[in-house]
Amino acid sequence: MATVMAATAAERAVLEEEFRWLLHDEVHAVLRQLQDILKEASLRFTLPGSGTEGFTKQENFILGSCGTDQVKGVLTLQGDALSQADVNLKMPRNNQLLHFAFREDKQWKLQQIQDARNHVSQAIYLLANREESYQFRTGAEVLKLMDAVMLQLTRARNRLTTPATLTLPEIAASGLTRMFAPALPSDLLVNVYISLNKLCLTVYQLHALQPNSTKNFRPAGGAVLHSPGAMFEWGAQRLEVSHVHKVECVIPWLNDALVFFTVSLQLCQQLKDKISVFSSYWSYRPF
């Protein structure tokens, strides 16, 4: 690699011409490719039905687990909301079968999906804001745009790959337990979240700690999945988790979206790397 001291005027002229071509042609080619990929990702989140425009079709997913058959059921997803849930729970102690389903007038918004979709929309907006006729004048301008797009894509991906950590009182207060008919027993808590390409349902069975209990009461902190033995205080009661049942189902279009995010982030990084390579040819930064 020639340094600025050794480079001839002709060599520098060639490099500068290649850099101008990168700014004027290749950058826009990459932006078009990114927009195409992210529009496909955006379509996965909207899932339009074949009927009225704007209608989002319902998808039914069967819950399953390789470790237990204590919980079985079907979740119905409509865009970013659970529109129906039909769950059977076999109580471990007496094998009593409980059935609970969403009330017909209720839906449960999945904030992770909504947030991921919003970040994708923001990334598309940033890319579309640079029309084909726009002339990038410096590499720094391209790097700034790529950083902004990558930030949105990283946030979108993280919302799906990193579920929120919640305390047990936060789960109890979330309102999800009040979505069901008949009403859930007071010794049950439920939580729903996205983890990667999976929709997960967790059922916590609780038992009250007696006031004279000799157990050392230590309230559990935040977690994605609490373990048996976790304790918390709710109202005037101290409670402990006795059993935990987790079931899940794969959402194929979430997997598609995660692939699109990965490919888009790689394209952004590759363009950034090309811009940075040119800077190494000069001791000063021509961008």
Compose a concise summary of this entry.
Its main location: cytoplasm. Helices cover 39% and strands 24% of the residues. It has helices spanning 9-46, 111-128, 139-161, 168-173, 252-279; strands at 59-63, 71-78, 81-90, 97-102, 108-109, 180-181, 188-195, 198-208, 231-234, 237-250.
Strand elements, count: 10
User: How large, in whole angstroms, is the Cα Rg?
Assistant: 26 Å
Question: Which residue ranges are poorly predicted, with pLDDT under 50 across at least 5 consecutive positions?
Answer: 1-5, 283-287
Q: How far is it from the N-terminal to the C-terminal residue, by CA? A: 19 Å
Mean pLDDT: 85
Structural class per helix/strand content? alpha+beta
Helix content: 25-40%
Q: What's the number of structural domains?
A: 2
Please give a structural write-up:
This protein has 287 residues and is α+β, with helices and mostly antiparallel strands. The protein has two domains: 9-49 and 112-161 and 254-279, no CATH class; 59-103 and 164-251, no CATH class. It contains five helices and ten strands; from the N terminus they run H-E-E-E-E-E-H-H-H-E-E-E-E-E-H. It has helices spanning 9-46, 111-128, 139-161, 168-173, 252-279; strands spanning 59-63, 71-78, 81-90, 97-102, 108-109, 180-181, 188-195, 198-208, 231-234, 237-250. Strands 1, 2, 3, 4, 5 and 6 form a six-stranded antiparallel sheet that branches. Strand 7 and strand 8 (198-208) form a beta hairpin. The longest helix has 38 residues, at 9-46. It starts with 8 loop residues before the first helix and ends in an 8-residue tail after the last helix. Mean pLDDT is 85; it is low at 1-5 and 283-287.
